[in-house]
User: Fold this.
Amino acid sequence: MHTLCVYCGSRLGSDPAFAAAAGELGSICARKGIDIVYGGGRAGLMGTLAEAALAAGGRVIGIIPQFMEGLELAHPGLTRLEVVNTMHERKHRMATLADAFVALPGGIGTLEELAEILAWRQLALHHKPVGLLNTNGFYAPLLHFLNSMGSSDFLPSAMVSELQVAPSAEELLQRLG
Assistant:
């Protein structure tokens, strides 16, 4: 794996462990020579992830829509910042650059990005691994729901079993290969 796409919140969330996990993932990726591609923001877990990777000598590529850059939401110190026209272009570009995908805690945007990349995998538009950094059980309700979708025959059982889930960045990266 050379490039990891990370979906995460533009807020820090209520649990300090979320920011610690984002920083840990950024630092470990830098140490392992794994580039990070993410949404290009400077706030919240996005900013924490980018800062940690950059501080450890890693490469961080941000993909941000023009309207967000105009609101001064872009991280100013990235290795590379690509400005695209739409959110759809952003997600497509991030997916194109990535060898694997990870979702950290986040809000509706993170959930939407995760759902789309899982849908693309189900449709065989990509065969890249997808993982959840399940910090303090953040994704337990979603995993329960996905299992319910599977047991109700709305989701192939392989979709749930192929999703890599771990409580720590190090363990998750090992599972992703």
Remarks:
- The mean pLDDT is 96.
- The first helix runs from residue 16 to 32.
- The first strand starts at residue 3 and ends at 7.
